[in-house]
Each structure stands twice: as structure tokens, then as C-alpha cells.
């Protein structure tokens, strides 16, 4: 005898059926009826709290030579649902995944209100490399109330242009033009 789930799992329940994302894309899915079938075994990415025996849905995208940020900020855990989410980023292939990065399952403090289900991970995406993201969650799920919203952002860290410097014997004013948003620069002075 065996039992079956009366609800169909989401289309991207398996790595082989990962939803394809591109820079700037957002996808809304329910992880409620996701399965654990085909998930990597415990210990992957060096984290104990793992994909092995919790609900997981899958995404894939191509590296762009930029910093890439995957976020679940905005996921809906209202109306009685509450869950913790974690993001696992892999390269390789679905049958031979290699860990690249992992998020914390703690709520993302940069997400407004830092709700349950919010987390993010950033890493450098090599051009020509396919990445797979396992979005895992554990907790309480209720139909139509526990949505996961995943967003892929690509951050262009191009070289600043139009640098200018005005130097006196005691000060230096330096400026440049950049399309990089929320990026910190380090200036080094060598005498």
C-alpha cells in the first residue's frame, strides 16, 4: 500500500523542471505542496538545516558577469501561514550540483517589516555558467495564503567613468560618474 498527495506539486518541484529567470524577473509560486523528491542530501553547502526533507521549488538562470542577488522579500505569510525560507545556489547540473552560495533562514532585515519567508543571497555570476536555486521552506502553509515571491536582480559593477580630481596641498576632491547603485568605493592613496 502507498499513499499519494491529493494536491499536485508545483511545476518547478524538481530541479530538472526549474523555472527559468532572467535579470529583473519576479516569480510568484506556492511552495505549499512542493515535495522533497530529488533534493540534495543533508550537509550540502555546509549547512545542517537542509533541502533534504523540506518543501523545495527550483529556479535556474545564466550568469551575467555581475553580482547577482536572489531575494524572497515580499513573500506572503499572512492569514495564518508562517514559514522560514532558505535559498541554495548551485552550479553544475541537476544530477551533480555544486554549492555556490546559501542564504540564512533568518528573516532578511533589509526587507520592509522583515517578515517570515524573506531571505536573500548575493554572489558573482560567471558568464556562461548555469545556476540552479533551490528555494526551501519549512513551517505552516495554508492554501492561497503562503506565496513565495522570488526576484533575481543583476547589479552592474562597471568601472566608473569621467573621473576628475582637484588637488591642493591639503585636500583632494574626487568625483566620477557611475550607474552602480548602492555601491561603496574604496579609494587608495599612495604617497
Please explain how this structure is put together.
This protein is mainly beta and 191 residues long. The chain has strands spanning 19-20, 26-30, 55-62, 66-71, 82-93, 96-102, 120-125, 130-140, 147-155, 161-167, 172-177. A hairpin with a 2-residue loop joins strand 5 (82-93) and strand 6 (96-102). The N and C termini lie far apart (79 Å). The model is unreliable at 77-81 (pLDDT under 50).
Key terms for this structure?
single chain; 191 residues; mainly beta; five-stranded mixed sheet; four-stranded antiparallel sheet; elongated
Task: Give a brief rundown of this model.
The chain has 191 residues and is mainly beta. The chain is 0% helix and 41% strand. Strand 10 and strand 11 form a beta hairpin.
Low-confidence segments, ≥5 residues, pLDDT <50?
A: 77-81
Strand and helix order: EEEEEEEEEEE
Q: What is the helix fraction of residues, given as a range?
A: under 10%
In terms of DSSP E residues, the strand content is 35-45%
Rg of Cα set: 20 Å
Q: List the strand order in the largest sheet.
A: 1-3-8-5-6
Shape: elongated
Report how far apart the termini are: 79 Å
Average pLDDT, to the nearest integer?
77
Major sheet: 5 strands, mixed
DSSP, total strands: 11
Total helix count? 0
- What class do helices, strands and sheet pairing give? mainly beta
Explain the layout of strands and helices.
Blueprint: E1 19-20, E2 26-30, E3 55-62, E4 66-71, E5 82-93, E6 96-102, E7 120-125, E8 130-140, E9 147-155, E10 161-167, E11 172-177
